[in-house]
Design goal:
The protein is mainly alpha-helical. The protein contains 17 helices and no strands. It has helices at 3-7, 11-44, 52-61, 64-79, 84-109, 117-126, 133-151, 159-187, 192-200, 203-219, 225-248, 259-275, 280-287, 289-306, 309-312, 314-339, 342-348. Helix 5 (84-109) packs parallel to helix 14 (289-306) and helix 8 (159-187) runs antiparallel to helix 10 (203-219). It is globular, with a radius of gyration of 21 Å.
Length: 350
């Protein structure tokens, strides 16, 4: 039984819940707007991350992908269903177009690029071009969420408990995968490069944020001001721990699927949702976040390859790259929405 179904027995409660859900759509879009700005910030940082300030800022911005996954789980739990075909179509068509453009850009800048069909198909399937590996993550997490709701008949009285149990179990499995995937692969002789690629696509770990979003929609009451303050305090402490682990290289200092990262990112997602950001500008930006995700990297790559922005270095280079990317991405989104047909906008993710 879904959240809305449970409330349908009480018409007054249902009207309140529906009004809340409508307002939360704006909140979710604002959260996505914040998250896509964080994505641009991460990709604008100078590489490699040698300076402490760069590592600290990178650590602060890392919950961006968990925010998108959290939002997906949250909205799914509210509706009680996963429109699988619709979601896959909305994700894969814009990705295929962006992939073709990214592939052409990489080929122009790398004459020695491997163009074998098997290699190209592997690049497409795993998102191994620019920063598109999170498309693979999203698609796999969507399939996992669909499976959770498919194996449980939502019309049964205990369906809510069964879904919750599966989601909690999936979080536990995600943490286990994050903790033991790296040492297990190292024991088998995997290279550091391969380890990094696999950990970026650690689906059980990433799915834990989808599960967290769904559980938040089903159970959490974050309206209490004291609870919000406690969440923000805990989030700050978790960030300091995660940043310290990465800067000092303590234990599992991985960028992605470490327990320290999960703690910080999970608290960030829940804390951000508890704040209920409602900026119309952020909401507009968030509603086109997939378009910006797919195309902002072209701006960053062009700035680095064809302008002297690299020579600025440090904070100045980051500020210029990030600022220009935000402005040009905003202009591109606005232009596409004004000029393109609704179908083309959907095909581009706008």
């Amino acid at each position: 039984m879904t959240v809305v179904e449970r409330l349908s027995e009480h018409p007054r409660s249902l009207s309140v819940a529906q009004a809340s859900a409508r307002s939360r759509d704006g909140v979710i879009d604002a959260m996505r707007g914040i998250a896509i700005l964080m994505v641009i910030g991460i990709h604008s940082l100078p590489q490699p991350l040698d300076a402490i300030w760069a590592k600290s800022l990178d650590a602060a911005l890392r919950p961006c992908v968990p925010v998108f996954l959290f939002a997906s789980g949250y909205l799914t739990a509210l509706s009680g269903r996963v429109p699988l075909a619709k979601r896959l179509k909305a994700a894969l068509i814009p990705y295929a177009i962006a992939f073709a453009a990214a592939y052409a850009y990489m080929a122009l800048h790398n004459p020695a690029m491997d163009h074998r069909i098997a290699t190209t198909l592997a690049r497409f399937a795993l998102g191994y071009v620019f920063v598109y590996y999170y498309v693979f993550v999203y698609v796999c997490c969507t399939l996992g969420l669909w499976l959770v709701f498919a194996v449980v008949e939502t019309g049964q009285p205990d369906s809510r408990k069964r879904i919750a149990a599966l989601l909690i179990l999936s979080i536990g499995c995600g943490l286990l995968a994050g903790a033991y995937l790296d040492p297990a692969m190292s024991r088998l002789g995997a290279s550091d490069t391969l380890l990094d690629e696999v950990r970026m696509r650690d689906i059980p770990f990433w799915f834990s944020f989808v599960a967290l979003g769904a559980l938040t929609a089903m159970f959490a009451d974050l309206s209490d001001q004291g609870m919000r303050r406690s969440l923000l305090g805990a989030m700050l402490a978790a960030y300091m721990l995660y940043a310290a682990v990465r800067i000092l290289n303590l234990g599992d200092a991985a960028t992605y699927d470490s327990i320290a990262f999960f703690l910080y990112a999970a608290l960030f997602c829940v804390g951000l949702f508890a704040i209920q950001p409602g900026s119309p500008l952020l909401g507009w930006f968030g509603s086109g976040s997939y378009f910006i995700y797919l195309w902002h990297i072209f701006i960053i790559m062009a700035l680095r390859d064809h302008t002297p922005v690299r020579q600025l270095g440090g904070v100045a280079g980051f500020a210029v790259c990030c600022g220009l990317t935000v402005l040009l991405s905003t202009a591109a989104l606005l232009a596409v929405r004004q000029i393109a047909s609704p179908r083309l906008c959907r095909w581009l993710g706008a």
